[in-house]
């Protein structure tokens, strides 16, 4: 199979898998909006940054370790086998603070995220359950990344889609027929990564499996080497959390809980959009790392061009859908038919999603930089788009233009990051 066909195979399967993950968050939002109205959507939006942080750690460890594995394996280096078991051990250790927060202080965490007394009381059972399943969320990222990097993207896709389908079905069953409410939604979400891990584990019993579980003490050095290449994955996941946290605080000050609920609608559809572009970046990563490990520079450049072009086409399709069906999309999560929320979310969707014309390229480029062992440049790109630029732009533009400035902060920050990323890519190309 030639490189172009491999690219579209890996990318398409990874997009479908990550879309499944984001769709179960949409299902959560829909069912919670039906069960608890605007307060339920507000609660979920306050919890999203916590989810993002958990997923970000899993992405940093999992994608970074799997990338190291792919590069070293292509070079014939036996050290590649230590990265899988080390990633699993370290993820379990890193999940302990979340477990403790879930057991002892879920309410304090929700207050820290900006929840008032009513929202905190509503959300304690929800937060406690999903925090206690943190090890499974993190390990799921690691297992699926290694399965994908070991040449089995189809199984990783099936596992992700199956877990997402389980989540959607049992969201409904737990919340309504069984009457568990928001706790039922959290339980369905918490069990879904266990389903995914179980299905992915089939790969380790196949003849084609190249991943070994090495029984050694966890190594901080190996973790650091993994995190170097996983930083773009970390910031990519965290960017949604940082954006959500900053936007929540700004919108609370501008128009209260209704504005946060409106952003909850925008943020949930943004998760789907981000999943699409992460699918391109993560799908291409095993191929880029393999080409890089073999010294095939023309192959890596071809994959970068394919990824960037694919991201641009997908951004155009995505914005066409959002612009043409804005009110219908907003209406899905507006169970109380709030006119103010609909107005806020309508403008938010149309301004915010312009940013994906630039964000798609930034996500793909950051993944490429990590896959070719350029952690410093990948970190610069990722931190700029995920933290620095979005925070500065949102603070400045909200002061100048109010709520419209908040919505416009995302496209402006992604445009600035795209210019920086293009400079970093062209600078290295000239020296090669």
TrEMBL record:
Keywords: Cell membrane, Membrane, Transmembrane, Transmembrane helix, Transport. Its main location: membrane. Pfam families: MatE. The chain crosses the membrane at residues 7-27, 50-71, 83-105, 125-143, 155-174, 180-205, 226-254, 260-282, 303-333, 353-371, 383-401, 407-426. The keyword Membrane applies. It is found in: Cell membrane. It comes from the Bacteria. This is MATE family efflux transporter. It comes from Faecalibacterium wellingii. The lineage of its organism: Bacteria, Bacillati, Bacillota, Clostridia, Eubacteriales.
């Amino acid at each position: 199979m030639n490189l172009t066909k491999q690219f579209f195979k890996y990318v398409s399967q990874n997009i479908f898998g990550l879309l499944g993950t984001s769709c179960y968050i949409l299902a959560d939002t829909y069912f919670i909006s039906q069960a608890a109205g605007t307060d339920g959507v507000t609660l979920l939006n306050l919890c999203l940054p916590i989810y993002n942080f958990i997923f970000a750690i899993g992405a940093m460890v999992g994608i970074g370790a799997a990338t190291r594995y792919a590069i070293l394996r292509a070079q014939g280096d036996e050290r590649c086998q230590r990265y899988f078991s080390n990633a699993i051990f370290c993820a379990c250790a890193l999940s302990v603070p979340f477990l403790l927060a879930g057991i002892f202080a879920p309410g304090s965490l929700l207050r820290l995220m900006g929840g008032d007394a009513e929202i905190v009381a509503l959300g304690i059972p929800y937060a406690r359950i999903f925090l206690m399943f943190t090890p499974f969320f993190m390990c799921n990222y690691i297992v699926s990344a290694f399965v994908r990097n070991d040449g089995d993207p189809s199984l990783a896709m099936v596992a992700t889609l199956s877990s997402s389908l389980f989540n959607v079905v049992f969201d409904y069953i737990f919340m309504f027929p069984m009457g568990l409410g928001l706790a039922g939604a959290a339980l369905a979400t918490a069990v879904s990564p266990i389903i995914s891990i179980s299905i992915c584990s089939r790969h380790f019993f196949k003849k084609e499996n190249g991943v070994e579980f090495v029984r050694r003490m966890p190594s901080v050095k190996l973790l650091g080497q993994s995190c170097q290449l996983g930083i773009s994955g970390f910031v990519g996941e965290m960017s949604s959390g940082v954006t959500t946290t900053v936007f929540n605080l700004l919108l609370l000050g501008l128009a209260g809980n209704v504005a946060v609920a409106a952003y909850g609608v925008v943020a949930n559809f943004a998760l789907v959009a981000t999943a699409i572009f992460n699918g391109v970046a993560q799908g291409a990563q095993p191929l880029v790392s393999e080409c890089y490990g073999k010294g095939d520079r023309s192959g890596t450049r071809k994959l970068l061009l394919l990824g960037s072009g694919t991201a641009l086409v997908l951004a155009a399709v995505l914005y066409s859908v959002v612009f043409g069906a804005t009110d219908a999309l907003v209406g899905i999560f507006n169970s109380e038919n709030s006119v103010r929320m609909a107005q806020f979310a309508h403008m938010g969707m149309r301004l915010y999603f312009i940013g994906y014309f630039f964000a798609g390229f930034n996500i793909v480029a950051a993944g490429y930089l990590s896959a070719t062992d350029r952690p410093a440049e990948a970190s610069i790109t990722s931190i700029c788009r995920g933290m620095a630029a979005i925070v500065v732009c949102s603070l400045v533009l909200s002061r100048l233009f109010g709520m419209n400035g908040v919505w416009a902060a995302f496209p402006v920050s992604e445009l600035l990051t795209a210019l920086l990323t293009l400079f970093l890519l062209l600078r290295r190309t000239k020296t090669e």
